[in-house]
């Protein structure tokens, strides 16, 4: 393998055709060691070969690969730079956060948007806070990107156990100024953040008039935790339209809690046949 890697490095450094260098990059993605990284890094500013160099570097676990991509931020522009930024996000490179935060102010909206998306994927507190500021001042064309990046960051924070910080972001993303798909995603994020507030939000959503939010709440019932969750949700059954009752009954049944049975008995004696069958 070392001999083959050396041959591929020679191909990248030489006057081989673009097709040959593309092939070399593909192979180095599989067998590459730190020895090949300088040759790949040299291709990152090349508009025609940057993509394949990134293809090889992205999955490499060596710190030198991440460093090569970070260094390339200062050597690239336009679409090539956007690609490098995207690769850093793919790697969830926490060491790139400082550089990416600065790029949020770039005049090129594509670069600023790519930096926001990358920061969302990285999802550290520093990244999330930078996205808060970016979201607040984002130009109209970048608002959706900013909101989506913040939502992704919130999801990452939940995974890290930073539920309160994630919930704060999702609360803001519930505002009507953000796209509908982001608001729905943020609602799921609030439920994922857990705690008694999550249950209260689910109850409110199920009892509310927005069918989309109600459906999302019902779909996420299985993940809700806390004492008396099933009983609190079952109390909303009589207030819902039949179709929503059917969905809620199915979700509650999946939780397997005994204290929802009285609500099921009542529903089974009701006038709607679909609800009776579900109960």
From TrEMBL:
Family matches, as Pfam families: HEAT_2
Protein name per the record: HEAT repeat domain-containing protein
Native species: marine sediment metagenome
């Amino acid at each position: 393998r070392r001999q083959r890697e050396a041959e591929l490095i020679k191909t990248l450094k030489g006057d081989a055709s673009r097709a040959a260098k593309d092939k070399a990059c593909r192979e180095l993605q599989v067998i590459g060691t730190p020895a090949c990284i300088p040759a790949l890094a040299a291709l990152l500013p090349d508009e025609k070969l940057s993509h394949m160099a990134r293809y090889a570097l992205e999955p490499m676990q060596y710190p030198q690969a991440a460093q090569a991509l970070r260094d390339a931020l200062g050597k690239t522009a336009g679409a090539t730079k956007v690609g490098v930024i995207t690769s850093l996000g793919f790697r969830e490179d926490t060491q790139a956060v400082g550089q990416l935060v600065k790029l949020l102010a770039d005049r090129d909206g594509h670069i600023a948007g790519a930096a926001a998306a990358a920061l969302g994927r990285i999802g550290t507190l520093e990244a999330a806070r930078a996205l808060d500021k970016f979201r607040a001042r984002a130009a109209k064309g970048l608002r959706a990107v900013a909101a989506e990046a913040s939502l992704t960051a919130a999801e990452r924070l939940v995974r890290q156990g930073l539920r309160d910080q994630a919930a704060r972001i999702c609360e803001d993303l519930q505002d009507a100024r953000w796209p509908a798909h982001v608001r729905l995603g943020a609602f799921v994020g609030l439920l994922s953040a857990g705690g008694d507030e999550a249950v209260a939000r689910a109850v409110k959503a199920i009892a509310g008039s927005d069918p989309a939010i109600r459906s999302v709440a019902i779909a996420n019932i299985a993940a809700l935790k806390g004492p008396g969750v099933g009983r609190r949700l079952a109390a909303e059954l009589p207030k819902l339209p039949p179709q929503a009752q059917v969905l809620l009954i199915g979700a509650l049944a999946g939780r397997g809690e005994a204290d929802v049975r009285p609500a099921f008995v009542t529903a089974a004696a009701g006038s709607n046949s679909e609800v009776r069958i579900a109960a």
